[in-house]
Amino acid sequence: MNQILLYVLFILVGVAASAYFSATEISIISANRLKLRQQAKQGSAAASLALSLLHDQEHVLATTLIGLNLANLATAAFVTSLIEGWLGVGWRASLLSTGVATLVLLVMGEILPKVYASRHATTFVTRNARPIQATEQLFLPATAVIRLFLGLLLRGLRKAPQQPLVTREDLKHLVREVKGDTGHGRKEKKMLGSLLGFTETTAREVMVPMTEVIAIEKGSGISLARALAKRHGFTRLAVYERRIDKVTGVVNIKDILFDKDPDEQVAHYMRPALLVPETKRIDRLLVELQRSEQTMAIVVSEFGSCVGIVTLEDIVEEIVGEMAEEHEIGVRKIREIASGTYVVDALTDIDDLNDELGLELPKGRFDTLAGLLLKHYGRIPAEGERCRISEVEMEIVDAHQFGIGSVKLVLPNGSVERD
């Protein structure tokens, strides 16, 4: 009985050692260097030690692999001895011991510790920096021999390309950690975040929906096109055929500005439209607009209908923020009417609203405040209806049969400092 308890104890120690080395391996690879540098600057000795270990990553990984293999071999040996003492030497004992050892080491020694360490890599490597260093010193002779052998083996191979010192995820984490207390600080933080997410943003996220697009039927006269352009301040108009979601081209107001025949049809001056799917990334769309020498693209859904337009200005605004045109001066989507009380255009993007007012309104299969409210009510709400979402009091100020116009928001913590 004492021998069995001893074997069980050795097996538990072996599994624990295997789990430790597995967690160390994944945390060394996944730890956030920028966060560690920040902690080191704040005086954390553990973070400084962790950084020094990461600088010699190959040595640490060699140590963990040696320790992991030794722990696995020892565990397998003790499991085999325990089962053979129970069943006797034979193929049944060998088969059972192999299955038990593999299952225990795979689940308890590999999968669980690696999942945990991948989620808490920086914390794990900081808390275990000293034990890792001690283990590294313990296995120093063995790792030195292995590294020498690997150096000779890989000498003839081409040098692998150097990994970037800072990854995109590191930069995103740094931007999140920056405290932008001033107006300029918040604007710069938002711009950096937009720039880093530029290649992940799709046309659907920046487009102007067709419900807001000023378009003209292709059979209309150019006098109507001139009037629309003058009224709304646009230099280009989308041209549709029969239905507004069937855009067939674009007319440049410069082409019809000085035409002598006001009854001439817009179709005669229409240029082909650049059609793009709503899932197209805006970095690629920007290149396509430049190559085609166009400033506007028509966004098409998977069902073949036009759902919006994207202009060069929309793409640039995704990085630098809203740029007011001459006809837009004095018009804001978010207007403060009292301390902590705002009237907001219902088509304001949820992300922009959260950033501007410091809110945490939820995101879903919608992009705007109107989409959030339509999901909440399950219908188009009437003027004066009120609700509370994420601790924010909301009142419908303006609504019509097709949607919501504007909404009054009352913030739980009062007014916020805005740019």
UniProtKB/TrEMBL annotation:
- Its primary localisation, in coarse terms, equals membrane
Q: Where is the CBS domain?
A: 269-325
Q: Which residues form a coiled coil?
A: none
Record field: transmembrane: 6-31, 60-83, 95-117
| Annotated CDD domains | CBS_pair_CorC_HlyC_assoc
Q: One GO MF term, please?
A: flavin adenine dinucleotide binding
Q: Which UniProt keywords apply?
A: CBS domain, Cell membrane, Membrane, Repeat, Transmembrane, Transmembrane helix
**What kind of membrane protein is this, topologically?**
Multi-pass membrane protein
InterPro entries, alphabetized: CBS_dom, CBS_dom_sf, CNNM, FAD-bd_PCMH-like_sf, FAD-bd_PCMH_sub2, Ion_transp-like_CBS, Transptr-assoc_dom
Localization: Cell membrane
Which PROSITE patterns does the record cross-reference, listed alphabetically?
CBS, CNNM
In this chain the CNNM transmembrane domain maps to 1-189
> Any one cellular component term from GO for this entry?
plasma membrane
Q: Which family does it belong to?
A: Belongs to the UPF0053 family.
Cross-referenced PANTHER family: HEMOLYSIN-RELATED, UPF0053 INNER MEMBRANE PROTEIN YFJD
Q: Know the name of this protein? A: HlyC/CorC family transporter
